[in-house]
Design brief:
Length: 305
């Protein structure tokens, strides 16, 4: 197989932009020349990598798999050249994608705790919904993903290709604004209808709540008055006294402690959640490999937030 490094770099650029014209500008070549180089790569590999029938263009299933290899080869080559030229990459930042609620409330104390065991750990964090995060991880466009574990396997992540560490056991709690006596303004025990602040249909946390309510008469009493994909958005509405919502406990610890929020139901209505840190085993970035080895040496309870 006769491959040129520039073809791999072209392919990575195309996967990022999903546009031949934009990629050609980025790679400082004409669009016809860029297209010929992508064709040459496909001929060398022996499969079609790019789905040209869609707008923006997409990758075939073979292309998605090859993208991880291409990124891996380009990164390893660049890192090797950096070493040869005497450039240190010891402090290279790790790119992490995380669910919004985890990025805002869980990540800061967890990474601070981890650094006490491992030392300084430069990172770049981007918050996005779980579906987007999985896509970014699968295409090798991030180093690590922080997400809720999916016991129903709807995320479809092969444990061999995408190994993970369990780093947190948390719960979603039903909460409400308190009334003047400190009791919940809205309670699950009420016989009347209850204003309900819900997660949007595609939100991961919303599926967990729907599973809890699926076969319970309570769902018939809940009157949806607001929807959003983000736990912090629901928290803000609960604090305004609009209704009840299920929110991860790490997002509302301070509010529960000070009495700004109270439980709207007992512990039978809590939803257990597990948080995991994922990586792609096909990507061999030195910083990720080093972190993974170090984490494996730490006591299990040290990894838990």
């Amino acid at each position: 197989m006769n491959l040129e490094t520039k073809w791999l770099e072209d392919f990575v650029a195309l996967a990022n932009t999903r546009s031949f014209s934009a990629s050609a500008r980025q790679r400082h070549v004409t669009q016809p020349a860029f297209s010929r180089r992508i064709r040459a790569l496909e001929q060398a590999v022996g499969v079609t990598l790019v789905d040209r029938s869609t707008t923006p263009i997409g990758l075939t299933s073979e292309g998605q798999l090859f993208l991880i290899t291409a990124r891996n080869l380009v990164e390893q080559l660049n890192e090797s050249l950096s070493h040869l030229r005497g450039v240190s990459i010891a402090n290279e930042a790790l790119d992490i994608v995380a669910a919004h609620s985890l990025a805002l409330s869980f990540y800061p104390p967890w990474i601070s705790r981890l650094q006490k065991g491992l030392g300084e750990l430069p990172t770049r964090l981007v918050a996005m919904n779980v579906g987007e995060a999985i896509h970014v991880l699968r295409e090798g466009n991030c180093d690590l993903m922080l997400a809720y574990y999916d016991p129903f396997a709807t995320m479809q992540l092969d444990a061999e290709v995408f190994p993970s560490f369990s780093i947190g056991q948390v719960k979603m709690l039903p909460v409400s604004l308190p009334d003047e006596q400190g009791k919940p303004l809205f309670s699950i025990q009420n016989d009347s209808s209850i204003p309900y602040l819900a997660y949007t249909q595609g939100a991961f946390l919303g599926r967990s709540v729907r599973m809890l309510l699926k076969n319970d008469p309570l769902r018939l009493k809940l009157r949806t008055v607001y929807e959003t994909a983000m736990a912090e958005g629901l928290k803000g509405m609960v604090l305004q006294g609009v209704g009840i919502a299920w929110i991860p406990d790490f997002c509302i610890r301070e509010e529960l402690k000070t009495g700004k929020l109270v439980r709207a139901g007992d512990e039978n209505w809590d939803i257990p959640l597990e948080i995991r840190l994922y990586r792609c085993s096909l990507v061999h970035k030195p910083g990720v490999e080093r972190l993974w080895r170090q984490m494996m040496k730490l006591p299990r309870d040290f990894l838990q937030a």
